[in-house]
Amino acid sequence: MSGAVAGGSGLVRIASGQGFWGDDLEAPVRQVEAGPIDYLMLDYLAEVTMSIMQKQHSRDARAGYARDFVPLMERIFPACANRRIRVVTNAGGVNPAECARALAAAGRRAGMAGRARIGVVTGDDLMGRLDGLLATGHPLSNMDTGEPLESVRDEVLSANVYLGARPIVRALRGGALVVLTGRSTDTALTYAPMAHEFGWPWDAWDRLAAGVVAGHINECGAQASGGNCLAEWWAIPDLTEVGFPIVEAGPDGTFVVTKHPELGGAVTLRTVKEQILYEMGDPRTYITPDVTADFTTIRLSDQGNDRVAVDGIRGTPPTSSLKVSIAYSAGYKAVGTLVYAWPDAAAKARAAAGILRRRLDRLGLEFDRVRVELVGWDSTHGKLAGPVPGDLPEVQLRVAVRSGDRHAVERFAREIAPLVLTGPPSVTGFAGGRPRVQEVVGYWPALIDRSVVEPHICVDLVEV
After folding, report:
1. pLDDT at 125 over 60
2. Which residue pairs from 427-432 have beta carbons closer than 8 angstroms and sit at least 24 positions apart in sequence?
3. Buried-state track 285-307, b at ≥16 Cβ within 10 A, e below 16
4. Sign (positive/negative) of CA torsion 10, 11, 12, 13?
5. Which pLDDT score, from 0 to 100, does residue 5 have?
6. What pLDDT score does 9 carry?
7. CB 225, CB 266: distance < 8 Å
8. What is the C-alpha separation between 365 and 348, in angstroms, rounded?
9. Nearest CA-CA partner of 136 in 368, 432, 452
10. Which among 67, 144, 192, 411 is most buried, taking Cβ atoms within 10 Å?
């Protein structure tokens, strides 16, 4: 099974269908039904997503993956099979095997028995190996602080290494209609189909780097086709049914970013540039498991009609390490809000925050952090917001606390409601009861030698 290359066009069309877990569930359906594509890329994972899935999995052995994905595939499975559209996704989260079982059952319900194969990539989950790795000299030190993981080992919730395109390519070569991974890099979901279709060798650094750029543009869904767009956002047409981006790639690594013409949104130099700059560190060294891409070499040209061409990208070999995303329990938090009305809305909110803080001090409660914001004035820009305007019609006081002491956070949660009658006047918005105490999940980025990970990567093929 292959895509457009086998059909003689020389191009492969890779459509973005999800930018995060919770994205527009109709977007993948539109991508499949509104025009020709060869691959549908569905990106569900972020760092915090993995910890959420791990907590779900700890409570239920059948959980731990993006459950939205299974009913979605049940809807589009027949169309994908009939049109030879292959799906590549990291929806497996921390439980790809269970996700594959649920997906196979959904495929059979959709009439796909004997007609499709699922490729399952595992080996990214390090939780079961963590103590052994630490004991054998892999400290998994925090990339930001240098602290060894031992300092928070007992609080670790999840540990997943970012895998690249190679296992996905193995699954595609094995005939998988759907390839399901755990913590793959977001970009690999796009450049793996390119590497597979064009038979790129793994030392074709420039072409692989071009695939990484294509994947970076594709990974956040409609953010490259007009959604969340800063540049003349009011002029983006019909975001009601926005067309997610599609990468039309050639064997030399050049590609065009476009969308289905009858869908909304826009693909322009500005929308593509904004996405390229998203989550960017040093643009000269965008590191992935398969190649290091130099984003300063990207050349863009607007071809009109929602088509932006991309070329010129250079790449160099990858590093000897792989990145590990670790989540750990970092205490508790709660957030309380009250809305104060004109006149003097901001002054009332500030006074209420002061009263609250003094009451907490008298109770002897200590917090690692207390944050006070006035939503409607300084919550977005902080000190850059300038002096408080005197004529704000209303403002929302938002107070958040964080502590390793759950009791302190719970007591804070009980002190918000009394301000309605024991603080400044004109509270107009208080609903939902006391603030909910939530666990804080900390993010711990680390590096590990790829030689201790890659031998454990497994690709299984499951028949529907």
Report:
1. yes
2. 427/338, 427/339, 427/340, 427/341, 428/339, 428/340, 428/341, 428/394, 429/337, 429/338, 429/339, 429/396, 430/337, 430/338, 430/339
3. ebbbbbbbbbbebbeeeeeeebb
4. negative
5. 46
6. 62
7. yes
8. 24
9. 452
10. 192
Task: Name residue 229's beta-bridge partners.
Answer: none
Tokens of 438: 């939530």
Closest CA to 200 of 257, 249, 247: 249
User: What DSSP element (H or E) covers 246?
Assistant: strand 246-249
3-class secondary structure, 267: coil
Distances (CA, A) of 367 to 335, 357, 371: 13, 11, 10
pLDDT band at 230 (very low <50, low <70, confident <90, very high): confident
pLDDT per residue as tens digits for the range 192-201: 999 999 999 9
Please report which helix (H) or strand (E) contains residue 191, including its range: helix 188-198
pLDDT at 432: 74
pLDDT, averaged across the chain: 94
Q: Are 233 and 203 in contact (CB under 8 A)?
A: no
At 2 the pLDDT is: 45
Cα Rg of the chain, angstroms? 25
Label residue 4 by pLDDT band (50, 70, 90): very low
Sole residue written with tokens 């064009």? 198
Q: Which two tokens stand for residue 103?
A: 């997906």
Q: Which among 325, 326, 341 is positioned nearest to 424, based on CA atoms?
A: 341
Residues of the chain with CATH 3.30.70.2750: 329-444
Q: Tokens at residue 200, please?
A: 């790129």
Domain 329-444 has CATH 3.30.70.2750: yes
